[in-house]
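Open question from group meeting: does this chain pack into something compact, or does most of it stay loose? Before anyone orders reagents, we agreed to write out a predicted structure and look at it together. Recording both the input and the output here so the notebook holds the full record.
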Amino acid sequence: MLTRNTLGAIALGLSIVTPALAQTVDLTPTLEPGEPMRYGTEQRASQSQTGEAEGGMQLPEQKQTMSETSEFTIQVTAIDEESGNANVEVVYHVLKVDLEQGPMKLAYDSTLAAGEQAPNMLSSQLSGLVGKPIILSVSPMGKILSVDSSAVPQNQIVATFASEAQARGRFGAIFSTRHPSGTADVGDSWTHVEELDELAPGMAMTASLTYTLSASDDGEAHVEVDGDISSNNPAGGMMMLDSAEVEGKVVWDSEAGLATQVVGAQNFVMKLNQPGVTMTITAETKSKTARLDK
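Structure tokens returned:
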């Protein structure tokens, strides 16, 4: 900002530059026992698989899409006095999932009355998830340390909601922007590197994500996320990561000490080499989680 000292400017014709003060934002989580906080998620995931056999023969494309609308509560139930870690209970109250794979179409809607839900693989596996607690242990800086999903059914579809890796991915950004100190100035950037598992069987991956505090207004901080994922697989592995990109945005409520909105998009391209066949798998996921009671 340019200001003029009246006497100095008239006498010397000079402008004095006064630097704007940096706006410091508190990004530390507030984890205290209290009432449940309600969130909602909308997510759509799609995957296509193409292949080529020996001799150049193209295999039929296979497609799968899965959409989700859910509502869940997050409640801090206790704080460990020694470590400061929070015991956090996550409970799904509404869950709607549609799965389409080729000619197969399946749906589950937890809001339907008994007898209205058509029995299928989704309904039989997901019905036991609603209303059951998933217990998170969360550090004072918002890192999810452990996940206890023993109260929910243990099956492949529920695992996409409640396994340790999936729970970290679904709920982690609500508790933390992964800033090392917890305070940042508008314009600051920081990088978080994390080892990933469960994204693909037998494939070790590393995510490198850059966070940028782009703006802060009325207690809401806007954090942009951009990064990529690399594979640590040794040469010769059957499944190889070709490319992976991640982007998103977090709206952080500095007063509440939690995110009120998390938007994300992920794009993966993987190669699967099998005897006589090379497969290309393309996967895209877009999601939005927002607080509903604020």
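Observations to bring back to the group:
The chain has a mean pLDDT of 88.
Residues 28 and 182 are 5 Å apart (CA to CA).
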